[in-house]
Write a structure and sequence with these properties.
CATH architecture of the largest domain: Alpha-Beta Barrel
Number of helices: 21
Shape: globular
Mean pLDDT: 89
Strand order of the largest sheet: 7-8-9-10-13-14-16-17
Number of strands: 19
Radius of gyration: 27 Å
CATH class of the largest domain: Alpha Beta
Length: about 550
Amino acid sequence: MNTVTDASFASETHFSSNSSLPPVNAIGWWVPDLSNSKDSVISSEEALRRIHQPIFVVNESGKLNFTSTGSAIIGDKPDSACSPLVGFIPRLKLQEMGDSTFCQDYSIRFPYMAGSMANGIASTHLVKAMANSDLLASFGAAGLSINEIESAILELKQSIPEKTYAFNLIHAPNEKGHEDAVVDLYLKHRINLIEASAYLKLTAAVVRYRVSGIHQDESGNIIVPNRIIAKASRIEVATHWFSPPPEKILSDLVNQGDLSETEANLASNIPMAQDLTIEADSGGHTDNRPAITLIPTIMALRDRMQEKYHYQSKLRVGAAGGIATPASAAAAFSMGAAYIVTGTVNQACIESGSSDVVRQMLAEAEQADVSMAPAVDMFEMGVKLQVLKRGTMFAMRGNKLYEAYRKYASIEAIPQVEKESIEKTIFKKSFDEVWLETREFFDHRNPNEVKRAETDPKHKMALVFRWYLGLSSRWANSGKNDRQVDYQIWCGPAMGAFNEWVKGSRFEAPENRDVVSVAFNLLFGAAQVLRQNLLRQQGLLIENMKQNIPPIELTDIESYLS
């Protein structure tokens, strides 16, 4: 029997599973395999969940039925054993929603990544949970000391030696030397995958990481040990990542003895990052760009850069920012994302390095409960990040400090009334006490900052204000009781969308949220949304199908994936 390919049906006709069907031109005839015990009529909801099986939608006795089988026969001639086939959904595997090469290259099974929320919010516990489920995660190294980062490296190398995971490398223009020290640490311990974030331009440190150890094998293939998954929301920054390392930086690194001539020469054949995550309206550092316009823009850039440089490994684009429901995940994959990245929703899970009180605050957040506030790492530049507004006054107080920084040349220039207000409501200490703590911190972290502050009053003021910005996130992570109103909690509108999605399920309670269940529900739900959309594109609108796929237990998902 031959498969019918040229027949059609009335695309404007709407069907429901409970109503009689008007006359249609069938796209074929479905012949059941009576020897297959699994061959049976199932509900539309069950049909969508069986993502590894094709679905046949048939018109039997004037009603729409769903049949799932791997051995049905599609024919072109009706007989007594046949039913009109009015719709068809092919099987779909989770790894096939994105780019399968992304999974292959990083030895994971699913095109999903948990981003590196700073100060260890993306904790070693979180990374291990994801890696043990064949998902990718990046440790939140930003904001931590070298000793804290090294402790995390040693823990992960010992506990999951055969698994893939990443470490964060953040651009820190206000901490000269720290970025280089982190790169030294990663090279020392052979951390071969990093997630690079908050970069406005490429630095010598990140170029040195990427190019170190590059060589050719016996067949002449270029081997690049160190890989970067970069994050960007601007086309000019994305262009830097998709380009080869800058010749000027390479030349300087060779002259300094940090790279060999051979390494520098080979670097012209590779992009700084093969994978670029489009960072849309996310928690933390963000330009609040809408994903629906940003994704196609960066993907067009990807195609131009691949055509220009002819890289031996193709460039890939992932999507982040606002991904917190099956529909948003499906939308990202439908637009061509090779993988998706989540952030804020992971902070609300039990494995995150945050506190229980923060998890509860996030669980109560709605989409409008976010605001922009100064970023501690780029305070003087006026860079802002997105934080939770509900239940905390951090955004308002952080912005007040930044306005004072812009307005006055030094601490002494701040009017006495305003100084007293800052001391009483924000610092809860005097300026002198805050400076002593700040000085002690930088004496260990970066003594050059103290030297500069002693000759530059405005820089001293910036360091004092950054004391509050830096500690506010640590107060949140530790759950400091008397500082809840000052908690800095990185959060995007995705958190509110997630809370709406899980409402009424057991995942509504923060103590029941774990990163693996969240990840698989997003992927599994996205697969169902994509299959449902295929029915809609065939003119079949099934009235009992839900656009919002509710979350289910991880064990139930695993039963459909086995």
